[in-house]
Design a protein that fits this description.
Layout: H1 12-40, H2 43-68, E1 71-73, H3 80-93, E2 99-103, E3 110-113, E4 121-125, H4 126-131, H5 134-149, H6 152-180, H7 186-229, H8 232-246, H9 251-257, H10 274-277, H11 285-302
Parallel strand pairs: 2-4
Antiparallel strand pairs: 1-2, 3-4
Binding site for Zn(2+): 143, 147, 218
InterPro entries: HtpX_protease (IPR050083), Pept_M48_protease_HtpX (IPR022919), Peptidase_M48 (IPR001915)
Subcellular location: Cell membrane
Length: 303
């Protein structure tokens, strides 16, 4: 874990929520692995696979995200404006500069990923750069840098692992039942059904825990980014513009990116209904704009 201190406003509620989420997910992970060992009767196999997948997601999360989003690291010569904005923000925040990447996608978005400050990456799509004014882009980048400073990028990366592995096991067990059911005895079929049930339950619990943390961390990043730039209206403008433009992106492109919703500045596909908001990775646009309006008033009162 990094011990970075920056000028980003600390958020004790975010820290507390991250600790509670990681504790509950860690406990759930131990129970999950223990259940798989009992059902599959293979300690070594389960432990090796679980440890290997967790290690791969932790160490290579930045590369996986960049590959999936067609992102590429860029030099200062290739993207001078982008590097210039990040340089200024990092100097203002007194934090190490992350690597800078660009994704050649029309989807207007940005995300930060990486296991710590030394391996962090901030990626911006060409669609976002094309649509935003300089002050709006600065607000979005300040938002993403706050994720790195608050260390919630690493937490959300690790936290999402349990849901990923549980989901993979559900699919594996389902297809094993579907295509190999006739050749297996009844005990094996029952074991596979139990594995699927336990995995589905673990996936559901981890899904809800991660969504709750993700929604709060986005509000915390909005606040920290707005306070750093002292321009909450610019961030609000970027949010409104990006959310409106995402609705005009082809659905197929949005679904390709939806797996990384928890990392994005705005979700690739919005929840759409009140009930679905409970399962969203982000607060509603109205909630985020309301919070930014409060910050604008707060800064005005201070001035």
């Amino acid at each position: 874990m990094m011990t970075m201190r920056s000028r980003f406003e600390p958020d004790r509620q975010l820290t507390a929520r991250m600790l509670v989420t990681m504790f509950l997910l860690g406990l759930l992970y131990v129970v999950f692995v223990a259940a798989l060992i009992v059902l599959l009767k293979s300690v070594v196999l389960v432990v090796v696979i679980a440890a290997g997948l967790l290690g791969a997601q932790y160490w290579y999360s930045d590369r996986i995200a960049l590959y999936a989003m067609r992102g590429r690291l860029v030099t200062r010569e290739e993207a001078p404006q982008l590097h210039g904005v990040i340089d200024r923000l990092c100097a203002t925040a007194d934090m190490p500069k992350p690597r800078v990447a660009v994704s050649r996608m029309d989807l207007p978005n940005a995300f930060a990923t990486g296991r710590n400050a030394d391996h962090a990456v901030v990626c911006v799509t060409t669609g976002l750069q094309r649509r935003l004014e300089p002050e709006e882009l600065e607000g979005v980048l300040a938002h993403e840098l706050s994720h790195v400073a608050h260390r919630d990028v690493a937490v959300i990366t690790i936290a999402s692992f349990l849901g990923v592995i549980a989901g993979l096991i559900v699919r594996f067990a389902f297809y094993s039942q579907l295509f190999g059911g006739r050749s297996r005895d009844q005990n094996t079929a029952v074991a596979l059904a139990l594995v699927m049930a336990v995995s589905a339950l673990v996936y559901a619990i981890s899904f809800l825990l991660i969504r709750a943390l993700s929604r709060y961390r986005e509000l915390a990043a909005d606040r920290a980014g707005a306070m750093l730039t002292a321009k909450p209206s610019a961030l609000a403008s970027a949010l409104t513009k990006v959310t409106g433009d995402v609705a005009r992106i082809p659905t197929q492109d949005l679904r390709t990116a939806q797996a990384f919703n928890a990392f994005f500045f705005t979700p690739a596909l919005g929840p759409g209904t009140t009930v679905a908001n409970l399962f969203s990775t982000h607060p509603t646009l109205e909630r985020r704009l309301e919070a930014l309006a409060e910050i604008s008033t707060e800064l005005g009162e201070t001035a």
